[in-house]
């Protein structure tokens, strides 16, 4: 996917919730927020889109296998196994797997109760 102007919807992505903690009872001022950990798998050719932001939903990603391309600020950066990228209030991005094997990440973030 070389055209940064066209980002498809999510396809070829599966997510498994590994755990979560209700932060309200744990930290004053965090009522309605959860700490969430997911395993996300992006199949070869898969896209985690569309472009999305993380304002109010900070997190961090650890890549277990494969390579994930993170698109932000007009640039694409590849992340292989190991610590990936932070997702803070300034993050607006989308992800893809340009490789030939499934890319697997562990994503930990803080989300608002729905």
UniProtKB/TrEMBL annotation:
InterPro entries cross-referenced by the UniProt entry: Cupin_2 (IPR013096), RmlC-like_jellyroll (IPR014710), RmlC_Cupin_sf (IPR011051)
Gene3D superfamilies xref list: Jelly Rolls
Region of interest: Disordered: 1-25
Domain Cupin type-2 per the UniProt entry, residue ranges: 39-108
Name listed for the protein in its UniProt record: Cupin
Annotated organism of origin: Sinomonas humi
